[in-house]
Amino acid sequence: MARIVIIGAGMSGLAAASRLATLGHRVTVCEASGTYGGMVGRYERDGFAFDTGPGLLTLPAVYRDLALKTGREPLEDLVGLAPVDPESRHLFPDGSDLALPNASRGGVGQALDAAFGAGSGERWNAMINRGRTVWEATRRPLLEEPLPADPTPLHTDPYPVPPRRGLARLRPTGRWTLSDVAARELGGHPGLTALLAEHALRFGFDPRSTPASATVLPYMEQSFGVWYVKGGLRALADAVYRRCEQRKVEFRFDTRCEEVLTADGRARGIDTTAGPVEADVVISALDANVRHHELTGTAGTPDDRPASAHHADDIPGRFVVLLALRGERPAGTVHRTVVHAADPAAERAGIFDRGAPLAERPTVQVLRPDDPSLHPAGHHTAVLTATVPSTRAYDWAAPGAADRFADQLLAHADAAGLGLGERVLWRVVRTPADTRREHGSLFGSVPRPALPGARGAYLQAATEEYPGHYLIGGAAHPGGGLARVGMSACITANLIGPA
Known about the structure:
single chain; 499 residues; alpha+beta; FAD/NAD(P)-binding domain; seven-stranded mixed beta sheet; six-stranded mixed beta sheet
């Protein structure tokens, strides 16, 4: 039996703790805040409840595996789980209205043909098939195994660039980006381009520079589906926390880690605000920058920070508006609606180009769950989310900045016909600055999944930093997002092994 201390009670910390305790280890989790769940938070007021982090679950197989390996129970015995269908509704500036079915490649093709004209579905599905090639080439090394000691093979994008014809053969190929895919494979169609770009923007990726391997994101979503956890995703955090309690994991809340203790080149425990905690293994589930600046005492220069932290100040954040709405949820309302940007070029400049103004009508995701446990009778809720510049690139604390942008998002959604503004009882605005303050991230950035290609620029820090010290969570391999942080916990538990 090893003594294991985990820094952070976010979802990766909870998942790792439950797995390792099931393997027979003595596990202690030290959490700086007073609760668990990390980014999977909850806001409650006047009988309304909201997820403050992710609102939908993809790749539920990760948490199904966790439930089975730690308790021999199906995930559905721990939480209410339901597919979201339609998976999403998309409203475009030209008035096009597109509803995509959940986990149905054929259905998606038919919906695209109906919305954008014959052949649109064929174009899209041909691109998705190439995204499947990326999935098959990288699933094991990028999602199921530790980052290889030599990650060079993952520096090359496995996206199969289609053969070029005519004069195009004379131009150098270079590295394909998502923008190249949209232009050359989707024919530059504005609707299809916006649909592809939305998958990138959601994770803080700039389509103009993100490698074509990011087509794996829509492939995974359309192949494995999107799911809703009844009661919100906080219910999933509650379930994993209960499993930890059943496996006798010790939690120390309001206990901040100050330093990782080492001896003879190996981690030997941590020093906390409540005193030292001795351990045979230390697992850090923290932002890569926080870990290096605060725990190891490094200066934080590009040479001593992990690759995933090099450009963290350029990674966008999420702007969220929680809406308490009067009246019942209108009949026929879909769970997830995406209102696309009026000017995609202006939106990308406002997010990624330093000094450019924010777009007034950006892409906004609207979640309106049909879940009576989240609101008083006769009312309902909505959550608006947009990708925005990080706190380093934009001053979200400037007087009136957050409220003005929230007004713009609400007006943009209502101009598309959602009719939210007239129903608002009250709202809460959350900016990347709030994320940074609450979760310790230096920049309040979007957790991003690892991607192959671009010479390794989109890979995360390796799982094992030095003997006895492991990294999990969104800043470590295989990257951010609820499914991937669960994968990072699984990878680490497998490396440590049973007691």
